[in-house]
Amino acid sequence: MPITLKELAEFCNAQVVGGDASTTIISAADIKSAQVGQVTQLTNSRYAQYINNSPASACFIAEGFKVENVPESMALLVCVDPEMSFIKALELLHPARVYTPQIAPQAVLESDVILGDQVYIGPYAVIGENAHIGDGTIILAGAYIGKQVKIGKNCKIYPYAVIYDEVILGDNVTIHSGAIIGADGFGYKFRNYVHVKVPQVGNVVIDDNVEIGANTCVDRGALGSTVIGAGSKIDNLVQIGHNNKVGKNVIMCGLTGVSGS
Questions:
Q1: Which regions in the chain score pLDDT beneath 70?
Q2: C-alpha to C-alpha distance for 233 and 99, rounded to whole angstroms
Q3: Which of 3, 104, 126, 240 has the highest Cβ tally under 10 A?
Q4: How many Cβ atoms from other residues are within 10 Å of residue 31's Cβ?
Q5: pTM of the model
Q6: Which sign, positive or negative, has the C-alpha torsion 201, 229, 121, 123?
């Protein structure tokens, strides 16, 4: 969404220093690749060398941050926290896609499904029996939601994510494509030279404001719950085994694996 530099600065609580406040900003980019009409950020002196010849129209920097040889055409957007101001700029210049609430005719809803207000269910999504979908939640094409699943408000389930039976999601939870929530834990007993499967009859509970990356697996508890605490962010290709309790605001990076108990 194009916006003038002056408007961007006001929105992001920044002060314009230099440049032309009437310049139109159309998008954001990193400091190495930003071009005319784009805004960038400089938060580490290691990257200061890239500002000298940058054609970017604007750059967020912190109050008191010393930078030399700024191009005359570039405005500095001076603020208290340039990283957070840049995030606000990203959200403004690159707004997320908006989904008009609807139930696609190709979606499959089994019996006794409860849908909140302003819900979007995409084509070929499957919602299992007795599932409860909260207000404002978006379930995109091809996602599978099992029986007796409870999904809170303003969640987003990306295409081809799978949420097994009896999983509970809080509010503002994001599940990316290919993630599998609630598959059986890896539990076996070795008897008479045979691996005997232990039934996995627990579930998964994901608290508010959690994001689960693509192709990540969170196994259900063997008897109780596998729990992901509020505010935690889990990267792509992470394995969380049965019965684990992940605390609040935890970061787990890609290819991490935590075995079950």
A1: none
A2: 24
A3: 240
A4: 18
A5: 0.95
A6: negative
Q: Where are the beta strands (DSSP E) in 30-125?
A: 38-41, 58-62, 75-79, 102-103, 108-109, 114-115, 120-121
CATH of domain 3-93: 3.40.1390.10
Residue pair 219/184 in contact by the 8 Å Cβ criterion: yes
Question: For position 78, what pLDDT does the model report?
Answer: 98
Output the pLDDT for position 72.
Answer: 93
Q: Domain-by-domain residue ranges, the chain? A: 3-93, 102-258
d(CA 107, CA 91): 30
- Give domain 102-258's CATH number out of 2.160.10.10, 2.40.50.580, 3.30.70.100, 3.40.50.300: 2.160.10.10
What pLDDT is stored for residue 76 in this prediction? 97
Measured CA distances, 242 to 61, 62, 63, 213, 214 (Å)? 45, 44, 47, 18, 19
User: Checking DSSP bridges between strand 58-62 and strand 174-175, what pairing results, if any?
Assistant: unpaired
Distance, CA of 107 to CA of 59 (rounded, Å): 45
Q: Percent helix, strand and coil across the chain, each rounded to 5?
A: 10, 30, 60
Alpha carbon distance, N-terminus to C-terminus of the chain: 49
In this prediction, residue 1 carries a pLDDT of 77
Catalytically active residues are 242
DSSP assignment letter at 5: H
Whether 43 contacts 54, CB under 8 Å: no
pLDDT of amino acid 114: 98
